[in-house]
Amino acid sequence: MVKLKRLSNKKRRAGIRKQLQFLRRSLGHIEEMLTEYPHGTLLPLPNWLLRRYWALPHLYHQQYEMYKTNTRRCNDRIVSISQPYIRPIIRGKQGKTAEFGAKISVSLTGEGLAHVDKLHWNAQHEDHDLKDQVEAYQQRYGLHVERSKRELSNGGGQEPFDALLMFNAILLGQWHSLSDAALEQALCVWIDFLHFRGLSLSDAIPDETTLCRFRNRLVINDRLAGLLASINEQIQSHGLMVKGMTGAVIDATLIESAARPFKKQN
User: Fold this and answer.
1) Quick one: 193 exposed, middle or buried, by C-beta within 10 A (0-12, 13-18, 19+)?
2) 1-31 pLDDT, tens per residue?
3) Which of 20, 154, 176, 213 has a CA between 20 and 30 Å from the CA of residue 247?
4) Alpha helix ranges (H) inside the chain
5) What is the pLDDT of residue 61?
6) Do residues 35 and 23 make contact, with C-beta atoms less than 8 angstroms apart?
7) Is the CB of residue 78 less than 8 Å from the CB of residue 24?
8) pTM (2 d.p.)
9) What is the dihedral of CA 90, 194, 230, 88, to 10 degrees?
């Protein structure tokens, strides 16, 4: 299946069915061998291998339910048997729709001390636990709730940018296949990017974190796909089409070359 350039849905489901059958058969053989050990006896496996074995039945049931319902999503989906607590987080970035890692809620004091309020692996928007963070911040440091709300909403970072300017930046990153870090750098040095957004060299530029959060809000609110489709329709109405853009901005510098005598041609 991996070597096929074009994998149809029928072939994909057939391959998944065979893999599920192989996994179910292997788990059955292991269960038969484990019946030889009396109840309560330690299994002759190291702890790291036992943890992977315990994750396999849950993985099988998840994959079987998705195959049976012909879906690709399930709650608490296991993506790694060595780290079954990791969950896919949908980011909506160009070339990387999902990321894997922990999400941390941190509060920072004026003395530069950071306090980790929450660490979790499930996909969750940061605004969902903002209220709990504000209340914990108030109890910990004695600040007024309204004041701490304003401080946490800004987070000591950049001031909010206009939504239209931010969406224009997202379009540039989408069309040029740029990461958030590369897009931030391009907005600082590429004059055509600044003109497209209606900015000058003296205006503030959103950093990669601001760009990522803005895109995440569009994805969570189910707006990014609709906005991109609307932009494409407007462009196609003028008989145009946007494809993956490639190119480079070249800094032309004049240097002095070695003088050579001019030769006349006969």
Assistant:
1) buried
2) 777 777 788 888 899 999 999 999 999 998 8
3) 213
4) 9-34, 47-69, 130-141, 145-154, 163-176, 180-189, 191-197, 208-220, 224-237
5) 93
6) no
7) no
8) 0.47
9) 0
